[in-house]
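Hi P.,

Sorry for the delay on this. The queue was packed all week, but I finally got your sequence through. Input first:
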Amino acid sequence: MEGLTYRQASRFLDMATMGTKKGEIEDFLSLDNRTSWINSQLTEPYESHKERTLYQAQQRGSSSTTQEMRVCAWFDIALWKGAQLRQRMAFALSQILVVGDRDAQLAPYPTEMAHYYDILTQYAFSNYKTLLYHVTRSPIMGHYLTMVGNLPKSRTGVNPDQNYAREIMQLFTIGLEQLNLNGTPRLGDDNQPIPTYDDNDIENMARVFTGWFMDGSSMEKPMVAYDDSHDMEAKKILGAEFPAGVGAEAELDQVLDLLVNHPNTAPFISTLLIKRFVTSNPRPEYVERVASVFRNTGGNLGEVITAILTDAEVLKENDLHVAKMREPILAMTYFYRALDAKPGSGGVIAFDAMLYQETFNQYPLGSPSVFNFYSPDHLPSGALEANNLTSPELEIIDWNQVIKLSNIAWKVVHDNGYKTSSNSKQELYPVVSDFTTASSDYASLSDLIAKRFLHGDISADLAPRLEGLWNAKSSNNKPYAVSAMLYFAFISPSFMVQE
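Then the structure:
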């Protein structure tokens, strides 16, 4: 495996999956290189979130689905299914191309929202324009950003709704400020950042998104275009001329070409993806290398994620530019996968008891607004702010969330870790037998914990705490040190900060 150490392999899979399971790191090291693993992931069959949501309803004996079932279906796939890189990519894209079930219009449609997530999953490695095309035509997005049924001013006497027009530029493609290829802001003669668009661009962009309607009453079928309800007049957007007489479908294609090939889109989207996978503070050189791949391949997301994960920057350690806080929900998926947690009593689905009711301030397609759970540029006060270092995840990590996460981790390893009977289908039970078997020897047990949770190394701060927990148990009770040791490893900064 191109000379990678166990630690490097573990860190790589940590970035690229929902969490590593027993044996996966060893399997990974048997491959020739990281690209071999990525290539296999690009083509691996994947699960449908819509179908899994329906399966959730079936297993619960329900004739209808709920948003809770949709979220638990996401956990089913994250914890127990393959195509892990695709699932990580879809989750990252769901935080860029945001819709949320807290919106009153979307809340009644869990199955259709699962289908929207399937769009992100299906096109996770496609050309970015293709993904944007399907997202734009989704009635879930059409309702969320109020583009569905948009009519030209000639029909209503008022300008078309500008919501989607604004966000497809600000959040989905070019951002607010002009960027160099390395992601740094371009400055004008006044030494200030240069805006990427103005009010005229928004107004004309909104005219492009007229004439799109639902296909019957379906919140799942792509919206259809009606040219008699589309603004057919000439438009000018971002300096590009759009001639008169062009229908809605053709004009959508033209504007997506414009946006995806805009000089800003490559560094803007590349930076967002790097922040979701590798580091909160990527060096400009790293951004430029990835953005160049985006630009040179026309936004091929498979090539982009390959560039992100095979860059030399990924193998660097103990550096501010290769560190990030774990997202709370991904900390939990790692924990469950590392311990091969499964439902009790032959259960086959995740229930709400351990997962959905404790949302950790985030859950898939559960953002409170189109601006995601947190800002990608969140600058926490204190030492990070003093060093101009962003940490997006810290915007949603508070003491309430820390307590929730800690309590669930303790319940999993302590309450459920030693149960052998009366297990509930509504809870998850870890496999701790490997750890209890090794518990008579501290070196063996600590090595196993290190490899499963800490990339093979226990920090100088954590080591005496784990050893103290082991020493506190008599020789006959060493297996009962396991739960506390796993718990401390999980809640430690060594685990929660990826570096």
